[in-house]
Design a protein that fits this description.
alpha+beta, two-stranded antiparallel ribbon, 7 helices, three-stranded antiparallel sheet
């Protein structure tokens, strides 16, 4: 059996290769729209004497908010001494899990495309390749469901921690009767919302791809080879 590299672009014209290319692209959009995000909310503090002050609430990937200072060092706001205060919440595990699965799928799609385009003759001549591909694809469908759901919940926690209620509950100053805090300028989280959408889109794309990978396995071929052909009928044995 020849195992050398043989470039053949025809698999891209078939669902098996074309869907893998789509998976490669959707994985890029998923982890690319989440990793590296930087946002800033502007918090306005309305003092009881009519003065207004502002502070910046900066947050970024991986959204370990409990380590992000809202106020650095001792400072005076509205004639009140405020010590170093950090934001509340930690969505790092969900965000890093989501980005990690995206990178794994990105790399696996590239390797699978290399096999399809250069080693398809080896892939189809062995049972190991299609079965391994089917098992990994099925596992990644489940992981996309888990990481997308976890990140959707983590993103909601980020939104809650950085909105007016979240900031007000973090700053003890905002709990005073003469001081009111409100987020007056919100960071755009459109890319983070898109990342969640692409996470679930990846789940559906990979789920659909399991069928095309399954068709390459011997399980599928054995299933159809064991079925009687059209027009075949069992003839009863003579008595």
């Amino acid at each position: 059996m020849m195992t050398g590299f043989r470039l053949n672009l025809s698999p891209l014209k078939e669902p098996l290769g074309f869907v893998k290319l789509v998976e490669w692209l959707t994985a890029i959009f998923a982890f690319g729209s989440c990793g590296g995000y930087v946002g800033r909310n502007i918090v306005s503090i309305y003092c009881g004497d009519g003065r207004n002050e502002t502070i910046d609430a900066n947050f970024h990937y991986p959204f370990r908010l409990s380590q992000v200072p809202l106020i650095e060092g001792n400072t005076t706001i509205c004639n009140n001494s405020v010590s170093t205060t950090h934001m509340m919440g930690d969505s790092a595990s969900a965000a890093e899990f989501f980005v990690g699965i995206g990178i794994i799928c990105f790399l696996y799609s590239m390797i699978a495309l290399l096999v399809y385009l250069g080693y398809m003759h080896v892939y189809k001549d062995s049972d190991f390749g299609p079965i391994f591909d089917f098992v990994i694809t099925s596992i990644l469908v489940f992981l996309w469901l888990v990481c997308s759901s976890a990140w959707a919940k983590g993103l909601q926690n980020v939104k809650d921690a950085t909105d007016t209620d979240g900031i007000s509950s973090t700053l003890a100053l905002c709990k005073g009767t003469n001081v009111t805090c409100a987020v007056t300028e919100f960071a755009s989280m459109r890319t983070l919302n898109i990342s969640v959408m692409f996470g679930y889109l990846n789940m559906f794309v990979w789920a659909g791809n399991t069928w095309f990978v399954y068709k390459e396995t011997r399980w599928h071929s054995q299933k159809f080879s064991s079925q009687p052909g059209p027009g075949r009928q069992q003839v009863p044995a003579p008595i």
